[in-house]
Amino acid sequence: MSTALLSALDQPLLRRADLGGLSLPNRVVLAPMTRARAANAALVPTELHAAYYGQRAGAGLIITEGTWVSEQAIGFVNVPGIYSEEQLLAWRRVTDLVHALGGRIVLQLWHTGAASHPDHHGGALPAGPSAINPRVRTFTPGGFRETVTPRAMTRADIVATVADFRAAAEHAHRAGFDGVEVGALGSSLIAQFLNPRINERSDEYGIDRTGRRRLLLEIIDAVAEPWGGQRVGVRLSPYWTEGDYFTAAEAVLADYDEHVSALGDHPVAYLHLRGRDVAMPDDAPDLDAIARYRRQFDGPLIANNGFDQATGNAIIEAGVADAVSYARHFVANPDLVTRFALGRELTVGDPDTYYGGGVGGYVDYPMGAWEDAAR
Ligand SMILES: Cc1cc2nc3c(=O)[nH]c(=O)nc-3n(C[C@H](O)[C@H](O)[C@H](O)COP(=O)(O)O)c2cc1C
């Protein structure tokens, strides 16, 4: 074996890792990505989904696209669900294939709450923590639309939503997933509850930080049940910047210090943290931004946003993260782990095919050949 290859194998991204009961052969994680390929009325994943995830089975861990926990959760076109038996059975084909290819796969649970649109709900208003328009955009069958003022969720709505998450996790368990990830990223329902500018509730799901994170913690506990209290990851994005109400102001970051620290009392297998956006595409990610939350959480941490091979290795070597998730690089390089191991060039993806169409830009990116690498 050449010296170059031996040193490539020595890179931190290729070390084994244990993420709260999930045993990973490497630390290169497929980040969750909505690809809008479930273009069917029942919102079931298709053969194409199996091919897409199967091609990426070399990842230390696959985190699926955000997946609807209920019909009320819907806020984007052609995204699959996990609330029906038909969806469960279709996901089983995906997990079976990934497992046959030696991979591990967890399902990201998604609920858009107020970041939806009446067009997704037969004209009915979406519901959120308070009757406040989150002022973000949502992708409807008619294209991108501005959100509207939602209905404030009642206590009964909240109880039903937690139950929907629990049922979705039970379905994921039966569908053969290795775990679930609670999607609290961006402007999703859980992020709306965490946000004091949108959550003006005066009951125990609002008022202060403890109240605002109650929904998140109740959902974590509920979805952990089918997994015996293990295998539940949580995705947070303190630095999320969107519209008028989602900003990475210091007050927001301080809220998240406390929210992250509270995760320690709950069955959380890993924290999946989306770091600060980079100013320019080639800028290195801000490791201090991730390190801030590393200090608040004792469990495993997956870092994300703008990493490449060098910065991925660096953040693990520095002890700031245990693993790194890649989204855009993994779209265009299904064999990303092999490419890192062999020091190969990466293909650049086409953003125009991220959300549309079928095969194109989804399952037709080339897998690298050894001959090229040996040159
Ligand atoms: C096409 C696309 C779809 C995405 N969908 C999701 C999603 O469903 N859930 C989620 O948590 N993040 C989603 N993200 C965010 C990514 O997981 C990730 O945070 C972001 O792309 C930055 O990582 P990267 O620099 O490795 O691309 C999406 C990103 C892209 C590009």
Automatic annotation (TrEMBL):
<dbReference type="Pfam" id="PF00724">
    <property type="entry name" value="Oxidored_FMN"/>
</dbReference>
<feature type="domain" description="NADH:flavin oxidoreductase/NADH oxidase N-terminal">
    <location>
        <begin position="18"/>
        <end position="345"/>
    </location>
</feature>
<dbReference type="InterPro" id="IPR045247">
    <property type="entry name" value="Oye-like"/>
</dbReference>
<protein>
    <submittedName>
        <fullName>N-ethylmaleimide reductase</fullName>
        <ecNumber>1.-.-.-</ecNumber>
    </submittedName>
</protein>
<dbReference type="InterPro" id="IPR001155">
    <property type="entry name" value="OxRdtase_FMN_N"/>
</dbReference>
<dbReference type="InterPro" id="IPR013785">
    <property type="entry name" value="Aldolase_TIM"/>
</dbReference>
<keyword id="KW-0560">Oxidoreductase</keyword>
<dbReference type="GO" id="GO:0005829">
    <property type="term" value="C:cytosol"/>
</dbReference>
<dbReference type="GO" id="GO:0010181">
    <property type="term" value="F:FMN binding"/>
</dbReference>
<dbReference type="GO" id="GO:0016491">
    <property type="term" value="F:oxidoreductase activity"/>
</dbReference>
